[in-house]
Design brief:
- The protein is an all-alpha fold and about 210 residues long.
- It has one domain.
- It has nine helices and no strands.
- Helix 4 runs parallel beside helix 7 and helix 8 runs antiparallel to helix 9.
- It starts with a helix and ends in a 10-residue tail after the last helix.
Length: about 210
């Protein structure tokens, strides 16, 4: 009985997409809730208000990075799901693992915002991105092996998905290495990488990434 159930369970790709949309929406909402206005008791002039807003810069940078990170991963998962004819129990659980990593993004973002100059906070943030990428790659590789990809999917889609994840993670890893020199350098580089994927400029090299 268990074998029959496991073979029939989790075949609806739409249910995975619906759960994903909800989790990404909650994660994005939690990010902005961690940005608080300057304390009114400490603001008595325009200059003090500006100073209070400037003090929010680390939180705003962390928020921007995480919003782009979540958007990139949401789009990446959506691309995979759009090219599947069905799912199965194992693929559903793999996507569940991916989403579990995504739910950690508000935590790693807050940690980075609170301890912006600390390498430990930065590397934990990078690890969050790394494990999300590995989980998403595992989802696609399993879908291919289990022959869950649509028969009419473009032949180049498999290579495009794998290359995009590998190139992105390599660039993020380089950003993490820069963080060893200075956290600010690592953060700036990761921001540039994310902007490249969000804007997708049609440049000879960057467009291929």
């Amino acid at each position: 009985m268990g074998v029959v159930y496991n073979r029939l369970a989790g075949q609806d790709v739409g249910r995975i997409a619906a759960l994903s949309d909800g989790i990404f929406a909650v994660a994005m909402t939690l990010l902005v809730l961690d940005i608080h206005l300057p304390e009114t008791s400490g603001v008595h002039s325009e200059a003090e208000l500006w100073a209070g807003l400037v003090a929010l810069a680390p939180r705003l940078v962390a928020w921007l990075m995480s919003m782009m990170t979540l958007g990139i991963f949401w789009l990446g998962q959506q691309t995979q799901l759009n090219h599947l004819q069905r799912a199965d129990r194992n693929l559903s659980w793999l996507h569940f693992v991916f989403l579990a990593v995504i739910t950690l993004m508000p935590f790693s973002t807050r940690l980075l915002a609170e301890f912006f100059s600390y390498r430990v906070a930065f590397f934990l943030y990078w690890a969050n991105i790394l494990f999300a990428g590995l989980a998403l790659m595992a989802c696609w590789l399993y879908a291919e092996r289990a022959r869950l990809v649509r028969v009419d999917a473009p032949p180049e889609i498999a290579g495009a998905i794998c290359r995009r994840i590998i190139y992105a993670q390599a660039l993020y890893a380089f950003g993490a290495a820069l963080g060893l020199v200075h956290v600010g350098l690592g953060v700036a580089f990761i921001l540039l990488v994310q902007l490249n994927y969000v804007i997708a400029p049609k440049l000879p090299i960057l467009y291929k990434l």
